[in-house]
From TrEMBL:
Lineage: Eukaryota, Metazoa, Ecdysozoa, Arthropoda, Crustacea
Gene Ontology biological process terms, A to Z: proteolysis
One GO MF term: zinc ion binding
GO CC annotations on file: extracellular space
Designated name of the protein: Zinc carboxypeptidase A 1
Family under the similarity heading: Belongs to the peptidase M14 family.
Organism of provenance: Daphnia magna
Highest taxon of the lineage: Eukaryota
Keyword Hydrolase in record: yes
Amino acid sequence: KLNWTEYHDYTTIVLFLAELAQNYPDIVTLITIGKTHENREMYMVKISNTQTASPTKNAIIVDGGIHAREWISPAWNTWLIHELVENYAAHPQYVDNLDWYILPVMNPDGYVYSFADDRLWRKNRNPVNGPCVGIDLNPIFLFARTEGGAAGNGCDQTYHGPAAFSEDESANVRDAVLSVANGRTQAYLTYHSYGQYWLTPWGYTADLPEDYPQLFDLAQNAVNSLTAVYGTQYTIGSSTNVLYVASGGSDDWAKGGAGIPYSYTVELRDTGDFGFLLPADQIIPNNLEMWEAMKVVAEYVTGIV
Ligand code: 0X9
Ligand code: ZN
């Protein structure tokens, strides 16, 4: 059993996932997708009702914790898993009609380091770049990764590394995303903090995707439901246009590389009062409002034929 009144370390999160898989074998499968640079196992949770299994069911992929210090992201991802599984009876449709693939901590090495050594650590822990450790796992998903935003200097917080998919963590995610629910994954949501943004591709160019109106519409409906809970405001738009140019992001790759139509980066609470150090007493309110948005996406994705 996990609680969401505090932030949990990686070991605790993994234990929670393992217990869930054991207790709910009909709907939860724990998938190992590969190891990190420091040899930690990476876990993706598949939530799918085996009773209603179907090869044509639509799927959603969710991830969190690409950036180590953004603790609210794994906290939300784990809560989402909990809500879908442990509260299944309250809303069975989200599990019966959809398959979920949730990777709550995409950067376990960095996450562990942010607990033990440096609370504001962002990158992974690969020491490949001389005196400075770490590669920013976000900007290494596409060939376009060096086009803007991401840094070529290994000491920089946004160092994009030597090559696209050079890092074990990103390569594992690429392979997992391409192998699970191929052709039926309609949405990919990657959770970050902070800023309260609901971002669409592209992050590498100010040009908009062809289907931007549809991407925007779904985002708007999701955010409206979110805001209705506590009045929290989210800014919607393409990454480049409402945030900054940052090429090579996982969202751009999910859409442009993996062909998942509804791809979003969501920057969770807050807008800067606490920033990455979001107090733990905001975890539950953050999750309750984001759940309303998530349900809108889930309902929409269920209906896509
Ligand atoms: O810069 C990033 O990687 C993300 N922001 S954060 O403050 N969490 O680091 C934004 C990524 C948005 N998506 C793309 N630029 N593709
Ligand atoms: Zn981030």
